[in-house]
Specification:
Tetracycline Repressor, domain 2; about 190 residues; 10 helices; elongated
Length: about 190
């Protein structure tokens, strides 16, 4: 896994071969096939592990939230870190771009990682719906929509490098939380809290 992750980070999924992974890991073919049926299964495992690491980081941010609106805001802040926090973006940027590029080419490879990444957000949307904070939402659909809005900001920052994080954050929070039907006073509170 470590060898494959390094190759994907350095050269992209297209450059990944079983032979290169085995060479870097100093393993034989039989060792590989005891753990994986194919290269695609290895790539899926790499993306899933990346997502699990990211989810652990996001859950630490969400743990400080006192309600679902704050938790959704924390998830958004955590995802914006990819573009605006040098300590986060350096490791995850290439893997995130690779995963995004594979989303249409091989959704079965990236799908489990994508679902894992959305899981803490989905839990908060479901909680907010049960508590009546988010009215008339469909948590699975809205989790994907929120991810899309945040990802658009991340990509814009990566492309231009000149976005203001505070302005991007405020715009995404207003758009996403407003779309979920969060009360205006709760939206204003998370926007004030940076």
């Amino acid at each position: 896994m470590s060898a494959a992750s390094s190759i994907v980070r350095e050269q992209g999924v297209g450059a990944l071969t079983v032979a290169d992974v085995l060479n870097r890991a100093k393993l034989g073919t039989r060792a590989f096939y005891r753990h994986f049926d194919s290269k695609d299964q290895l790539v899926q495992a790499v993306f899933l592990e990346m997502a699990r690491v990211e989810v652990r980081r996001l859950r630490r941010k969400l743990a400080r939230a006192s309600n679902p609106v704050e938790a959704v805001a924390a998830w958004i802040d955590g995802r914006l870190d990819l573009a605006f926090d040098a300590s986060v973006r350096s490791d995850l940027r290439n893997l995130s771009l690779e995963a995004q590029s594979q989303m249409f080419a091989a959704p079965e490879v990236v799908g489990p990682a994508y679902r894992e990444l959305l899981s803490p957000l989905l839990q908060q949307l479901e909680l907010g719906k049960r508590q009546g904070i988010f009215a008339k939402i469909d948590p699975p659909t809205d989790a994907e929509l929120l991810h899309g809005a945040v990802w658009a900001c991340v990509e814009q920052q990566w492309a231009s490098g000149n976005c203001d994080r505070a302005k991007a954050r405020d715009a995404v929070l207003r758009f996403c939380l407003g779309g979920l039907g969060a009360p205006e006073h709760m939206i204003a509170a998370v926007i004030r809290h940076r």
